[in-house]
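$ run holo --ligand "pyridoxal-5'-phosphate" --emit tokens
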Amino acid sequence: MTTTASAATALEQEIERYTAANPNSAAMHERAKESMPGGDSRNSIWWKPFPVYVARGDGSSMTDLDGNERVDFISNMTTLILGHRHPEVIKAVEAQLDRGLSYPAPAQLVVEWAELICDRVPSVEKVRFANSGTEATLNAIRAARAFTGRQKIVKCEGGYHGAHDDVAVSVNPSFDEAGDELAPESVRDYEGVPDKSLEHTIVIPFNNAAAAEAIIRENGSEVAAVIVEPVIGRLGMLPAQPEFLQALRDVTRELGIVLIFDEVISLRVSRGGSQEYFGIMPDMTAMGKIVGGGLPVGAFGGKSEIMALFDPESESGPRVKHAGTFNGNPMTAAAGIATLRSMTPELYDQIAELGEALRSKLLNLIAEREAPMGVTGIASLFSLQFTADQIVDYRSLESADKTLEAHMFIGMLNEGFALSTQCAGNISTVITPEQVDEFVAAVGRVLERAGYG
Ligand SMILES: Cc1ncc(COP(=O)(O)O)c(C=O)c1O
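-- output --
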């Protein structure tokens, strides 16, 4: 998509306004660059010309170093489902603070946390804890390899499963390198990913059951796992078509392949995650974000017969080892338990209904302004799309207007709303219907400044 001169000028003006409103963040970013490359330690929260530095979060609001307040519509990348500093979470964390931060032995809280997850997530019979979603997918894949005795894995083009080598493949491939859309190339996401990851990781198109099945069958006897997000975050919180998930379920069952659902984001779709929503059960589930209530977390679980690989009490010890100084630490357990217990079915309904209202209001606005945009999402998750094409897979994003996306992201910060840099977001339980209306009005004002008045 080429950028017109007027769109580029409009974006420049938006950035000038941003720079003028955030001098303390700009100065902090200059300081950060002295000790961290590009001032950054986490790619997803770095943006041009500099990120805002947050001083405090409370409820639905975040305040930055310049005293600017923003309504948080991204909740640390969908994590803070109850908003910032929810009283129950703070109470639980403070109570644990009194008892110590971490121990060289397990705590009762971890057992309660595991019970809660096994009770809620239908396919999870046994669970283990880690400290990131990255570790969750890594361990689920490792278990699948050990269980099947096979090496290869299959993932969807555009799917993000964390920052380890075998999944750092075709998350965001350039359209020149991505190959045939029905049989995508495995493309290295960044330098340093070894060649073996490209050999081991086979890529399928999201939402194309026939093409995906053909690729899986072709490689069947070598494939340990198919890993998929039932709601794919990087394509704009896009739910899979149920037929696609069912086809993956059927073919993996037939060929003895472990089906892994990456529910690091989608667990917030309902009390039992998106597997409960779709009524399709994987063999293994990777979790993160909401299960830790705002503290670092990962969890993976599934069928007892697969999880038994990790059992130190089995005759010859665990077939797969899983260590980690902070695995199942009591601070995260406390925050996680408080969050999961607070999330009643009524609250899941409340955030899903508000998400639905937001998506439909945004769609009306976009139609009214004749902007080349769309809206995707499900339940409490949403994303603005910067193409009028229907989004079904990674290739649908080729026509996206990146200048308009950048303008919307910075423009919404200027309007007092935080989103991801891709303009994806979520509703947390502290967001009100009034804030949803204010959000939509703000999108309208940014569109006006971008030339869609
Ligand atoms: C679907 C999905 N899987 C895995 C991860 C990795 O989780 P973490 O950032 O906790 O390592 C993420 C992170 O955003 C994610 O969205």
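-- notes --
Residues 345-369 form the longest helix (25 residues).
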